Amino acid sequence: MNELKPRNHVPLEMPFGQFDAWLADAIAKELNDPNAMALSTVDAQGLPDVRMVLLKGHDTSGFVFYTNTQSAKGEELAAAPRAAAVFHWKSLRRQVRIRGPVEQVTAQEADAYFASRPRDSRIGAWASQQSRPLESRFALEKAVAREAARFGMGDVPRPPHWTGFRIKPVQMEFWQDKPFRLHERAVYLRSEPHGDWETEHLYP
Questions:
Q1: Is residue 7 very low, low, confident or very high in pLDDT (cuts 50, 70, 90)?
Q2: Is 181 annotated in the active site?
Q3: 20 to 30 Å CA-CA from 31: which of 1, 7, 152, 172?
Q4: How confident is the model at residue 81 (pLDDT cuts 50, 70, 90)?
Q5: How is domain 8-115+161-202 classified at the architecture level of CATH?
Q6: Whether the Cβ atoms of residue 100 and residue 168 lie closer than 8 Å to each other
Q7: CA-to-CA distance for 141 and 127, rounded, in angstroms?
Q8: Bridging pattern class, strands 171-176 and 162-167
Q9: Which letter, b or e, does each residue of 62-90 get, where b requires 16 or more Cβ atoms within 10 Å of its Cβ?
Q10: Cα distance between residue 159 and residue 161, in whole Å
Q11: Angle, CA 51 vertex, CA 42 and CA 170 arms, to 5°
């Protein structure tokens, strides 16, 4: 990241407080998945790879989502632990972009979230070889049935290949639609996670 130029210093919690307010508005007004975000990683060839995931937790330490570590995004994050994400709330005409290094959540965090998922989703995490070629829908249904029989009525523990990742932002940009495409863009930057934020406004 380029050396930061002098900007307006802001309190550590400022961009996170702004995000909390905007997410609360989205939860109240968006019809579907207000916590959906487009997640971008980089593959082994250096090509960007993007998909939609759901935000499952956030605080001043970062933004958390969960996945199979053997999936494309899991393997890409293992090789290059950096990511970018975009939240777009169309009905509110707002967008938030975040970028930063990525770390795995603790086993305790992953266990707690996995236990909160519906039982069928937990079984599916065992059955799905995420991002691998699927010979038929029947093969997937067979795998689900096999795992359901294996666990019976007992607990379904978290698979060792399933965990969460936390994006630790070093950049957050808030975009608000305005008439005549004269949008408002406020960007917060810091040189490393947990550092002090600085801010500036950008031309639309």
A1: low
A2: yes
A3: 172
A4: very high
A5: Roll (2.30)
A6: yes
A7: 9
A8: unpaired
A9: bbbbbbbbbbbbbbbbeeebbbbbbbbbe
A10: 5
A11: 55
